[in-house]
Each structure stands twice: as structure tokens, then as C-alpha cells.
Write a structure and sequence with these properties.
Jelly Rolls; 4-stranded antiparallel sheet; 10 helices; alpha+beta
Length: 289
């Protein structure tokens, strides 16, 4: 992660009071969420692991991680929280807070999931901090600024988020903070990103911004490293996914939608240009060979 490029964006900052039987059902979020459990307790199920969270806990929920929150009977909860991006981009202001599990996200919504710099190395979303009170105070100040919206509140929220991130970093995995990332490492990250976000629209400009690289340098190094132009690689991934779906019996319309094509016609033209076979005939043709 390029610390020099950090430009946090506060999507939502609010106080929240909850009591049983209220729950947040299984979902993945597009962004990061920091939660301060100011009072009460609830049960968090995070990536299949259940934990009872207590008053005073600070949690960091990472993008794309399946989780659920259940209030406990007779235990009212106050949990101020902030949803935020680490890096502001052209999509930041249009992306909402998600309340869906991954399986219910549309192809476009899946492309909104921010890069997760920490989740793979975090044993728990509960942060162990020596400066927890300072973090909680900044979080509450940010929530109040966001609610009251004084002049230039966006700048105040951004500044507070930078302070929060600075205080949180000692409790987060160090591997993601090696600076700067080697070009080869970043290229592998770009390739992995395409593998996971093949549905919907990708572009060289979007990938360059996502990985803080000049787009011409990215294009040249990717082709040199992997022997294929970056957009051609994206097309190759989409084609392989389409072929696999069609061979499993998925319909043309279902496949086109799952892969994020704007229409069945656009998908059919793409598929036939790449294989020489119409997608409606693909499974039959392959099995007949």
C-alpha cells in the first residue's frame, strides 16, 4: 500500500443504537468499516467464526469479508461506526453501503469491492490497541462532524481518518505496508485483481489508478511480465469463465449477465469473435468433438 497516496473518503459516519432482535444479516461490504462498541455487547460472525464483542471493543471490518451481527437479548448496544475508502476515486461518491452477501451482488457491484490490504493476515477483526481511547475519541468527533456538516466538513473528516489510520497501523499486519511495492509484486496484484473482478467493465486507466501506476508503464510491464496485453488478459479470463458456465449448462443470457456484459448481443459477438462458435451452440459443439 502506497502510504503517500492515502486519500481516505468517509462514506457514512453515524451513531447507531440497537436492541434484540435486531441483526445485520450475512453481508459483505464494499469498503472498510471501523466500529466502536461504546456500550453493550453483540455476537459477531466473521468469515464463519463467532465472537462475542464487548463494550470498549474497536473493530475493523474489511472489504469483501462475509459477516453478520446479532444483538443479544436484553443488552442494548451503542455502536458509532464509519464506512470509508482508503483511496478516493471516481466511484467513491456513488458506491453505497452494502447489506448483501456476495452471492446476491450484481456483476457491477462486485467491481465496487475495494482492495483488502489487511484481511488475509488479520486473525480477528477486533483491534488490540494501547491507544484505544484516543481512537474512539477521534471516531466520535468524525461522526459528529459528518452529522452536523459544518463548512468544509469533508476536509475535517479526511484529516480525522488519516489520524485514525495512523493510530490503527500498529495493530494491523505489517506486510501490506512495505513501501514501495516492487513492480513485479504490483503486477501480480493487478493480475489477481483482474482474476477476481473480471465481471463488469475494467479499463487500463481504472487499473492504473487502483494500483497507483502510470497507465503506459503498467501496460508495458504487464505485457512484458505475462506475455499478453492487459486488456487481452481480461478478455481471456472472461472467455474462460464463459466457456465453463456454458459447459455446465448455463444459458446464454445467464452467462452474459454473470460476466457483466451490457447485453446478450454484446456477449454473443464477443464470444463468437474469440471462439468462432456462437455461445448458444458452444456446449453441443464441444461435446460432439
Amino acid at each position: 500500500m502506497n502510504l503517500n497516496a492515502l486519500s481516505p473518503y468517509v462514506r457514512v459516519a453515524m451513531r447507531s443504537e440497537m436492541t434484540a432482535p435486531f441483526c445485520i444479516r450475512d453481508r459483505v461490504i464494499f469498503d472498510y468499516e471501523i466500529i466502536y462498541l461504546q456500550s453493550g455487547a453483540w455476537r459477531l460472525t466473521y468469515e464463519g467464526k463467532e465472537t462475542i464483542c464487548q463494550a470498549g471493543d474497536l473493530l475493523l471490518i474489511c472489504p469483501g469479508r462475509l459477516h453478520r451481527i446479532d444483538c443479544l437479548p436484553g443488552v442494548p448496544v451503542s455502536q458509532p461506526h464509519i464506512h470509508f475508502d482508503l483511496f478516493y476515486d471516481e466511484n467513491s461518491e456513488k458506491i453505497p453501503v452494502s447489506f448483501k452477501p456476495m452471492k446476491d451482488l450484481t456483476p457491477e457491484e462486485r467491481t465496487w469491492i475495494r482492495k483488502d490490504y489487511f484481511g488475509d493476515a488479520m486473525s480477528s477483526p477486533i483491534l488490540k490497541l494501547k491507544n484505544a481511547k484516543e481512537v474512539a475519541d477521534i471516531l466520535l468527533e468524525t461522526v459528529d462532524n459528518f452529522r452536523e456538516k459544518p463548512p468544509m466538513y469533508q476536509v475535517m473528516c479526511k484529516a480525522n481518518l488519516l489520524r485514525l489510520i495512523y493510530l490503527l497501523l500498529p495493530a494491523l499486519p505489517k506486510g501490506s505496508l512495505n513501501e514501495p511495492a516492487a513492480p513485479e509484486s504490483r503486477l501480480a496484484m493487478v493480475k489477481a485483481y483482474i482474476d477476481q473482478n473480471f465481471a463488469g467493465e475494467l479499463s487500463l486507466s481504472l487499473l492504473a489508478r487502483q494500483f497507483t501506476m502510470d497507465k503506459f508503464t503498467l501496460a508495458k510491464r504487464f505485457a512484458s511480465e505475462f506475455g499478453i496485453p492487459i486488456i487481452a488478459y481480461w478478455h481471456k479470463v472472461r472467455l474462460k469463465k464463459a466457456q465453463a458456465m456454458l459447459l455446465r449448462g448455463a444459458g446464454v443470457s445467464e452467462t452474459a449477465t454473470a460476466l457483466g456484459f451490457s447485453s446478450v448481443y454484446t456477449f454473443s459477438r464477443f464470444f463468437k469473435n474469440k471462439t468462432g462458435i456462437a455461445p448458444s451452440n458452444y456446449a453441443k459443439t464441444i461435446r460432439a468433438r
